[in-house]
Each structure stands twice: as structure tokens, then as C-alpha cells.
Design goal:
By secondary structure, the chain is α/β, with parallel strands linked by helices. The chain is 43% helix and 16% strand. It is built from ten helices and eight strands. Strand 3, helix 4 and strand 4 form a beta-alpha-beta unit. The longest helix is centred in the C-terminal third of the chain and has 17 residues. The relative contact order is 0.13.
């Protein structure tokens, strides 16, 4: 069995979010490994396995991450909070990174970094008996060097108008992800589009100032400009479940005509 080096996948993802065109991914909410295989074949740059808004279990997420890893597709995992043990298991399974929801406090960022980085940068526990370490095929020193050179990609979601100072929140991250849906609700849905756009612009400017990639979620590629994501580096388009539902509605409509 040939195991894809997760550090190579992280380098590919980091290169994609710094390229001229945005890196395009999608949320995975269904447990079928066919989803990540289809995403890889379709040309997505990454997928985000969703442990916040789905019925997926941690074991489902591990299975999806492992399959994406074998397909050569970077897979991040979205988590609602930092559980250090779970983060370690997901990274050992081959996750390219972690996407943390509802980031408001510096303490959350510190916990995420601590869970995702080995000492001295963090407090993650070390093992070589896992996929990310090539099951011990490289010595400990080599694995730690690879982790230092290509650490897990860290994405933080800004979804509320009030947070700790954005420069402090964003500096340790690779990607600042604006959650425009939750942000719109926080601003008083239905939010004035101009008010929402101003809030998104504020997050974007903070990300640019911190030299952190900027991104967010859109239902379709056509929605990027209205949501203030026209110049996003990291763009999550829809989800497997959303696309399946749209295709089923379209098919049912055609059959009923």
C-alpha cells in the first residue's frame, strides 16, 4: 500500500490558497467515501469534513479523512470546539488541518495551536503508529522535522460582530474564514446587506493586515461578490448534501413536467 504523505498535501493546500485563483473546496456532511473520491475527481482543491453541522461521528470523519488522504485530496475537519484528543486523532488519521467554528477569543486560538502542534510550539502528544507518521517508516526526528516544516493548516471562523481584537485572533492562523450566515444573524437577521458587507470587509482587512489568507462559504460561485468574497483565497462552495438536494429537486421537477 502506498500512503500519500500528508505533509505534501498540506504544502499543496498552502500553495493553493496563495495562488492567484482561489482554492475551491466543499463541505462533506455525508458518511460515504464516494463523496471525497468524487470531489477529488471533480478537481476540488480540498474538502472540509463537517463535525459541526452534520450527523457525522468522529469515526465517520476519520474514515472520510483516510479515504481523502488515499485519494491525494487535502481534507480538513471542521470542529465546533477544541477537543485536544480528538484533534490529535483526526490529524493522525491524515487530516490536512482543522477548521474551528465560532472563533471569538484568543484563548480558543491558543488551545487550537496547542492541540495541533508538537512541543515546543504546542502540546500535542507524539506517536509514530499512525498514517500521518507513515506508520513509523520515518524516524521520530524526521517526522518532527516534517511537522515543523509543514504543520496542520489552521482555519478560524469569524462569525460574530464582537470578538477579541482581530489581529490577536488571526495571527496564529493560516486562513481567516468569515461565516457570513452566522454573522448576518448576529447582526440582526435580516441584516442590512450594507451592514453585513461592512462587517465582512472589516474581517477581510484584518486578515490582509495579519498576512493571513481570507475566505468563506458561498452557496454557489455566483454568490462570491454579493457576500464580499470576490477576492477570497479559500472558498468553500456548498456541501455534498446541498448539491445532492438541488440535483434531486431538479430531477423531480423535470420528471413532473
Amino acid at each position: 500500500m502506498t500512503v500519500v504523505d500528508v505533509h505534501l498535501l498540506r504544502r499543496r493546500l498552502r500553495a493553493a490558497v496563495t495562488a492567484a485563483d482561489p482554492a475551491i473546496g466543499t463541505f462533506v456532511k455525508l458518511a460515504s467515501p464516494d463523496v471525497v473520491e468524487l470531489a477529488a475527481a471533480a478537481g476540488f482543491a480540498f474538502v472540509v469534513v463537517d463535525l459541526e453541522h452534520s450527523a457525522l461521528t468522529e469515526q465517520n470523519a476519520v474514515d472520510l479523512v483516510r479515504h481523502a488522504h488515499m485519494c491525494g485530496l487535502p481534507a480538513l475537519v471542521r470542529v465546533p470546539e477544541v477537543d485536544a484528543a480528538a484533534v490529535n486523532r483526526l490529524l493522525e488519521a491524515g487530516a490536512a488541518g482543522i477548521q474551528l467554528s465560532m472563533l471569538t477569543r484568543v484563548a480558543q486560538v491558543e488551545a487550537l495551536v496547542a492541540a495541533a502542534r508538537f512541543a515546543p510550539a504546542g502540546r500535542r502528544s507524539v506517536s509514530l503508529a499512525n498514517r500521518a507518521a507513515l506508520f513509523g517508516a520515518v524516524p521520530l526526528a524526521g517526522f518532527l522535522r516534517a511537522e515543523q516544516d509543514d504543520p496542520p493548516v489552521l482555519v478560524g471562523q469569524i462569525e460574530t460582530a464582537r470578538t477579541d481584537p482581530l489581529p490577536d485572533l488571526l495571527a496564529p492562523l493560516d486562513v481567516c474564514f468569515v461565516g457570513s450566515t452566522d454573522l448576518a444573524v448576529d447582526l440582526g437577521l435580516p441584516a442590512d446587506p450594507a451592514v453585513l458587507r461592512a462587517a465582512v470587509d472589516r474581517v477581510r482587512e484584518a486578515a490582509r493586515s495579519a498576512a493571513v489568507a481570507f475566505g468563506g462559504w458561498v452557496p454557489t460561485r455566483d454568490a462570491t461578490a454579493p457576500l464580499g468574497l470576490g477576492d477570497a483565497d479559500y472558498l468553500v462552495v456548498g456541501s455534498d448534501l446541498q448539491m445532492l438536494a438541488a440535483a434531486l429537486r431538479a430531477a423531480a421537477g423535470e420528471e413532473n413536467q
